[in-house]
Amino acid sequence: MFSRRSLAAILVVLAMVGLACAEDRVQSELKFIPHNKAEKTAGVWVDGQYVGFVKELTGDKKIVLLPGNHEIMVRQAWYKDQVEQVVLEPGKATIINVALVRDEHPNTREATGELKISATPTRAAVFVDNQFAGHVDEFNGAGKAMLLTPGRHSVRVALPGYLPFETVVDLRPHQKLKLQTDLVKGSITEAGSLVNQPVK
User: Between vectors from CA 162 to CA 73 and to CA 136, what angle results, nearest 5°?
Assistant: First the structure.
């Protein structure tokens, strides 16, 4: 037989499990269905805050939100932003069908400078000249680099919960350059406006 103290402890544990299950039913999950590489590597903003790129937002990185109205933005370089207003219902999953439309962009034949970026965490967002360019992992490794026109470019690497890294590069024609940094942990409020307020 259980003592009164043991029985009370068991009841507390059962109550906590019940509360956790109830909380799970209240939360809403957001799922993304991409159809090509550009959509899989597109950045995602929820209510103006960068949360990661499409293909990583599963498992322990899945997006779980409180029910209600939310603005979802999916962004990729050379594509038009996909913006959706969604109403999340308690305990239900909402699916976002990612369907990016190519945007007109300037002639890239003059883009002869090559920039590689090595940074941790690799899921951090990369902005060049205040435009979202992708995430770090897209610009590091064999065959991965960003082509830029010769001249000065501002580069920013940012992720909520880390202090942003900012620099200016001055590329010469056909020059290959590599930036390397480790983002330092900091307050989410220090991530900066380019993470929580995308610039078009």
Answer: 60
